[in-house]
């Protein structure tokens, strides 16, 4: 070993980012193992690497004792004081035992250690780089595919896309450029493993961030995404600026912005929903394009559930094809939604009415009673007046039987 070794370690640190101290520590450990294996030595061996000259020396560490039982591990006090009078029982002394042909073994070991450290450093660098892109969109190239995965090159690493993360109606061709969502980055024993997806709801959110500047800068916020990949998605948005319409901004002029996302996802339909603080309004918006008459919450149920009343002719629209519209709305809002047509809804009992509703009903009843009483009082007063005045036509007719005969 020589200064060339030091120069190689310096170059390795500069080019690969592997610190020289780390390689030297690993090299010393590997050389200890190699020495014990090749020379059948005990476990008291140390290897010293001179970081300035590049020289390697092997030492046997022995303990000073009164009586020596194993010469490989112990040295007598007499022999120790002959070396240095300051030695005492219990001290440890290093004796150089570097073999003459150890340079060849050291060179082979150093090569293996350096290659291993380089691989580890490259893996660590790749993991550090791509872990920053987790939950982000990257541009990749389809390298190959099999029955389970599509392999996408992202530059320094080949990512895998499982079947569950592949769009149902998409056909991935070799060397095709595609956008993928980095769903997970693992630091596995064989190196960093990057998993990508085209079906993850996060991809919809990131695509809108690319197309809508107001979403990217936070003026408009995507609150939630419910997705059935390749078919339909519902995206709930709200505005953090009262002068900005969240839905209109997201859709864009003539639907240009949302259409760009639809095109990227191979025609997947997008419903942009206005998020509301009031759960009933939010649920009604989530069921768009269906019209909602009322939303009733089941307070007695421990689960978050609601009954939605819609016009009879809107029932199929509210439920959607194979229940998709209701299913996505439930996923978006977090409520279990039961949809009923207006004709099946029973009238609410007085006991179930709120205090406000009961007060309004009482006021209407009181108004009807007052009107009826006033009419009855007027009729009684008119009859009394007529009986008291004989000149009145009605009184004459009632009291003169001759008129009847005529």
From TrEMBL:
Domain annotation S1 motif: ranges: 135-199
UniProt organism field: Lacticaseibacillus thailandensis DSM 22698 = JCM 13996
A GO CC annotation given for this chain: cytosol
Compartments where located: Cytoplasm
Single GO MF annotation: DNA-binding transcription factor activity
Name of the featured protein: Transcription termination/antitermination protein NusA
Superkingdom of origin: Bacteria
Compositional bias (Low complexity): 395-406
Gene name as annotated: nusA
